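Possible regression after last week's pipeline update?

I re-ran a chain I had predicted before the update to compare outputs. Posting the input and the new output here so someone can diff against the archived version. Not blocking, just want to make sure nothing changed silently.
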Amino acid sequence: MTVLVDSALWPRGGRLWAHLVSDQSYAELHDFARRLGIPQRAFQGDHYDVPAELRDRALAAGAVPVGSRELLTRLRTAGLRRARRSRE
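New output (post-update):
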């Protein structure tokens, strides 16, 4: 299992957000998100946006911290990166 999370650097709604992905499968990602209490309707096509405080819980649950570039590289290498228009 490899769920990855980048740093919470992305501002929105007065909070900082991170991205949560899997470099194995969407099923793995959905299962991990469900265990964190994130509803599947929050799925953004190839990732979940998670607020900084939930990022800490994701790390405690076993997510691996990576930089944003590493996250994208691993998502692409796994064939799980979706084009923007197919994520909307």
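Follow-up from reviewer: compared with the archived run. The chain has one domain: 3-82. Marking as no regression found.
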